[in-house]
Amino acid sequence: MVLDPSLQAGRDRPRKHLRAATTEAPAVRWTLIAIGLLFLAVFLLLPLAAVFYEALRGGVAAYAEAITDPDAMAAIRLTLLIAAISVPCNLVFGLAAAWAVAKFEFKGKSLLVTLIDLPFSVSPVISGLVYILLFGSQSLLGPWLARHGIGIVFAVPGIVLATIFVTFPFIARELIPLMQEQGTGEEEAAISLGASGWKTFLLVTLPNVKWGLLYGVLLCNARAMGEFGAVSVISGHIRGVTNTMPLHVEILYNEYAFSAAFAVASLLALLALLTLVLKTALEWRFADNIVAARGH
User: Which of 25, 105, 148, 212 is deepest in the core (most CB within 10 A)?
Assistant: First the structure.
């Protein structure tokens, strides 16, 4: 086989003659990198270091005392409880909504997608106020709820509802584009071979989206534990009863208990760092699976 001389010359051309992907001078590139690192240090790393510095400034004993305070422990337990309730609810909704939007055509599909995005466009404070207008003592439902001993506003159920509202887009919005990219070919093949719809979902659809699902659950859980606006409006700030960790930090700070406030805030910061590590690990695994799927 004889190669075209021009092609052979192009193949043998030294790599130094190949044009770089970017034409900026090295000084420009390094300046941009330095600006990015400086911005990261000033607006992210420095505040994070300040939180841990202020939390430990009074000593380890004072830090432990602030964390083990009964009100702090109640806030930690409530935060974990709210996340344990709201995340599974959003998991079920996100899977169902993503499956419906990505795999089926039906009337009102665009409306469903719009409603899923609604919490992104509504202020969390407004959503908390809406729940007060719906379930508060002066609302239409308020007297009926009071007669039957059902407490929603200034109680745990109201906090759960507000948290579910502000977090339910995360899993659905993570899964919808992933399922749309995968198409319906594998599901149709499984059904043609006699698999039921539920079995097709468990054995075909769910394994294909498991890493995206875990990624969405991680983001949903992080937002649920750190939510402040909606929970602040509907909780009533009852110490030891309806205060989550962010609300407890606010109360301690307003009472000038700065060391205790930063101690509890450091727990939220540790949860954020853990979330970041897990998020990065899932992004790597998720990207590897996408590359492998496209390679096949």
Answer: 212
